[in-house]
Amino acid sequence: xxxYKKVAVGGTFDQLHLGHHALLKKAFELGDLVLIxxxxxxxxxxxxxxxxxxxxxxRKRELEEFLRCQNWLVRAQFYPLDDPYGPTLTKGDLNAIxxxxxTEYTAKExxxxxxxxxxxxxxxxxxxxxxxEDSIPISTTRIRLKEIDREGRVLTLNRQTKGF
Length: 164
Fold this sequence. Notes:
By secondary structure, the chain is an alpha/beta fold. It has one domain (about 5-130): Rossmann fold, CATH 3.40.50.620. About 30% of the residues lie in helices and about 20% in strands. The protein has five helices and five strands; from the N terminus they run βαβααββαβα. A five-stranded parallel β-sheet has the order 3-2-1-4-5, sandwiched between helices. α1 (about 20-30) links the parallel β1 and β2. The model has no long low-confidence stretch (mean pLDDT about 95).
């Protein structure tokens, strides 16, 4: 099923969850080699998330362990991300990028910037957000707020029903 030599994917990868798994699975299904950008601690701070995040090294270690268990680690290259683009703006031999609906706009921006510098645009593969059992997308924020666990199981009453 692989159809690309090099595929890019990126994120914070904090509290590695089913949504991250789906993103990575699609990238490794499509690419011989997957370039994985992981946001640095400095970039996480700049994103002003409404919660703490594990350190870059903890997030990378957990990601490596997941990839090892899937037998994908040998096909991965890691890049620290200090901006939303990472190596996608300099690697002319990249073929595609895998993103969630939430970050599709960044992939389109990457293609515009690539074209401005004479690089070929990337094929953009968009995956659906993975839903928790309450039909709301799984996110690290929801996990950190203890609304759901990493598999999308509800841990607390959701916000709309609290207090009733």
